[in-house]
Amino acid sequence: MRDAQPSTIFLSDYRVPDFLIDSTTLRFELGEDSSLVSSVLALRRNPDAKTSDAPLQLHGTELELISLSIDDRLLADSEWSQSGEQLTIANVPASFSLRCETRIRPQDNTSLEGLYKSSGMFCTQCEAEGFRKITYYLDRPDVMSVFSVEIIADQSRYPVLLSNGNLTSKETLSDGRHKTIWQDPFPKPAYLFALVAGKLSVVEDQFVTTSGRRVDLRIYVEEKDLDKCDHAMLSLKNAMRWDEDVYGREYDLDIFNIVAVDDFNMGAMENKSLNIFNTSCVLAKPETTTDAGFQRVEGVVAHEYFHNWTGNRVTCRDWFQLSLKEGFTVFRDAAFSSDMGSPTVKRVEDVTLLRTAQFAEDAGPMAHPIRPDSFIEISNFYTVTVYEKGAEVVRMIHTLLGPELFRKGSDLYFERHDGQAVTCEDFVLAMEDASGIDLTQFRNWYSQAGTPQLVVSGSYDEQAQTYRLDVAQSCPATPGQAVKAPFHIPLAMALVGEAGQLPLQLADAPANTETADNTEMVLSVNEQTQSFVFTGVKEAPVPSLLRGFSAPVKLNFEYSRDQLLRLMRNDTDGFCRWDASQQLGLAEIKRAITNLATGKAVAPDPEYINACRELLDDTSLDGAMVALMLQLPSEAYLAEIIHPVDVHGIHQAREALRTALASALSGELHACYSRCESDEAYVPDAAQIARRSLKNTVLSYLMLLDDEQVVALAIGQFENSSNMTDRLAALNCLVNSNAEYKAKALQRFYQQWQHEPLVINQWFQVQAMCRLPGTLETVQGLMSHPAFEIRNPNKVRALIGAFCGQNGVNFHREDGAGYRFLADQVLVLNRSNPQIASRLLVPLTKWRKYLPAAQQLMRSELQRVLAEPELSSDVFEVVSKSLQEYQ
Ligand code: B3K
Ligand code: ZN
């Protein structure tokens, strides 16, 4: 809890540390009531520091200090002082050994930061600033040290004792306890420290690196989960090989451990050689895990593994540089997942996340550049902007340089900075130096927040056979940044004619324009307004713009319906093809909104229905793409496009359109469903995932027909599927219908899976996301269900998070009860787990974009939260910034 008004930290205030820590020796005595931590730090003054007489200031919070000594001399109380999170020792030599003993209470640590207990085991989470909850330290990423860690604990309760690096000693003590010592030869910041002690079972495998090093791979889980580790292990080995092949990066130690824990604030953590994972991101088997779950495991295992180079070997100088490791690592894991599965589907999924959550963040009160220049609580900046937009920025560098020069750039970056704590600027500089390409203006992506908007128009001159694109860019004001300089935007494009793409010839080819082949080009948009003229254009083309979503921008081009239909049918770029389908869907929804508002029936354009029919009938198409193209733009995406947001109007129009499509295409939908049925053994590969995705998209359309036979189909799928993807999709359809069977389905599902917490989370989530009235009451009732635990972040996310973040119509109930519910839960969690509380609050912070009545209700709940006397800095930052006037 904060003791005073929390203060803002600025990037511009960065100073190198006054001291360095050459080695860190830790000793943990883990107990049932409390644990003792002893540390010996080899400290010396930093030769690069501005002053040579600064006092030693260490970070520490919620610690009971037992003793402090310097070079074996015990310090008197008068020799040190404490204020807030800082311990100050005024007089210290140039180089010395500091010994410190503290007592901590992991059992009472509900913040899940520092050392805590989860399901009977001890585990740690130190990023970003959790190490200071373990002992006094220079808890900042530019202080890197070699660690030696001794762990002592009861042998029967905690047979497995793990830390980073190599196990150098193991000993049974005479008092029923045992002890291990771990040494990590790689210097690392404290945020990468990890410790685990518990009763764990292990799955083992091996990997031989390209240079012949044998690495032992181990996944530690509870015994009951031993049968759910194969997919994570396979993903790990695939990721290790991929990083060698694509980036030339090998693993550097003889052991790589993964531990799964139930109570975890996020997905996983890349601690050096001891990754700690949320069970939801490591455990998977077909009976309990959906396709999306399998893909998440693959993606997160790879992400954490890739951090070994992008994050651990080369780390961040300070937390403002977070995107240096996170943006780059997300870019790497996306490319890996794309190589392992379906590239277009992966791209569409990533773009969807960006266009909903990230664009919303960019347009809201917490908008920040991928390299923020200030923060109150760094935990609030593990955002879609830093991660996903950060990855898009790296992706744009990849697009501008091309794959070979990008690889030269990453090689140079690793060569220059291995073992260092560096900045985003160091990354860009390596890319520039290796490629010779000037990224001066491109750097605006690091310093400016907000989503740039591109307004593009095209004109064809038949006589001159030229086609001209006029491009204007702008970027809305964001908190603290009223005016923006133009961005350097790579605009990938093609011109699509009747029979395919046309050759491209720029009239006045600027030097910085790259041609991938002669029918596709990346235009460098870097001025406020710009024109590009193509010559030798033999017919009036349809421009295919922002191919592959080449930049994280909003694009506006006034396409006609027929132009969009051409792109939807013929574009060779999967993203643009899908996007054309979404733009057509958007136009239909907008028309449906108007129709409903004026008392008219919702009748989709016959040409649009035909295009959907073609998608359903064409068996040569990728099923996953068909599924994505058939799904209308989500309500979350619509809330980014239509202002002010009338949640209920949008929902009704979208559902009415879906129902009209379902009745117009019921024959095709039935035929497609039957074609997608299969009894082959489950494999989470692209082909099977595509088929299930299409089948379940089709089923959700069919359910709108209010037809007993379709309900029977859903019941059959629910009862007979052997995989969780199909079973859960059927359950979801039933829960959102008026089928009598739904109560029974929910009950049977619970009974069957009550001993699988991750499956029960899905059960909570399906109910929390039910679109029908009365869902808030259901959610409130479920909070007293014996399987619900407010201390477990996965359960909070599955029930409260899903209801408030993904169930627009119910969260935005007109009586404001949804808002009140969220504020109540935030106030409860503010005390036990501030990180989860502030994350949960996000849907309320977007209050400015809704209708006036909703705005008022949302704002008053935010004011109620702000009035709470003991707000954590996490919640305080989000709630106070979201109430501030900024535009
Ligand atoms: N680096 C961690 C995130 C830590 C979040 C701390 N609040 C996981 C990841 O991005 O890989
Ligand atoms: Zn990461």
Radius of gyration: 28 Å
Can you tell me the CATH superfamily of the domain at 309-556? Neutral Protease Domain 2
Binned, the helix content reads 40-55%
Please count the beta strands (DSSP E, at least 2 residues each): 33
Structural class: alpha+beta
The largest β sheet comes out as:
8 strands, mixed
Query: Counting H and I runs of at least 4 residues, what is the number of helices?
Result: 27
What's the N-to-C terminus distance?
A: 30 Å
Mean pLDDT: 97
Bound molecules: (3S)-3,7-diaminoheptanoic acid, zinc ion
User: Strand sequence of the main sheet, in spatial order?
Assistant: 6-5-9-3-2-12-15-14
CATH topology category name of the domain at 309-556: Neutral Protease, domain 2
Corresponding CATH architecture of the domain at 309-556: Orthogonal Bundle
- State the name of the first-level CATH class of the domain at 309-556: Mainly Alpha
Question: In what range is the share of β-strand residues?
Answer: 15-25%
Rough outline: globular
Instruction: Give unreliable regions as ranges.
Output: none
